[in-house]
Design goal:
It comes from Rubellimicrobium mesophilum DSM 19309. The chain is α+β, with helices and mostly antiparallel strands. Helices cover 37% and strands 24% of the residues. It is globular.
Length: 181
Amino acid sequence: MTAYVLLFRGVGGATQLPTGPLRAALSEAGFARVATYINSGNAILTSDRPIEEVSARVAAICEARFGFRKDIHVRTREDWVDLVARNPFPEATAAPTTLHAAVLAGDPAPERVARLQALDQGWDRIAVVGRVAYLHTPSGFGASLLATRFDKGIGVPNTARNWNTVRRLLELLDVAAGLRA
């Protein structure tokens, strides 16, 4: 069985994805060790299905049961371990709400990344490593010019999580994989 993390884009505010019914729907669909983390679109599950099938099945369930039609980014536990290990700003983990990992659906054009890097006001930083963009915004995500322009500027579908969430999702993936209690 493979442990997967599901990152639902755009959950919160006007778009709600109720965690209890979501867990029930995923369990009824045959997924195992289903868990959710906070009401902002994060779920963990295990399955023997390949990632493409998991992604398609979860999307179909969400549309049919909840009318949810936004992007769902699915990654394996191994992908998530790699995301944590490749963080280019390890010193930023001391203030985890200022560090974000944005999972990218594709490879951004280098010129788009360069334009985002040019927005640096002397403190914000961005680095793209594989299909993850790491944003360090020491003055806060909401106050960052880089952060406010990131979504459209990167040019590929994405969803971001702060480092507190990144770490907690790794813990839940470890539990689902049977690596911790």
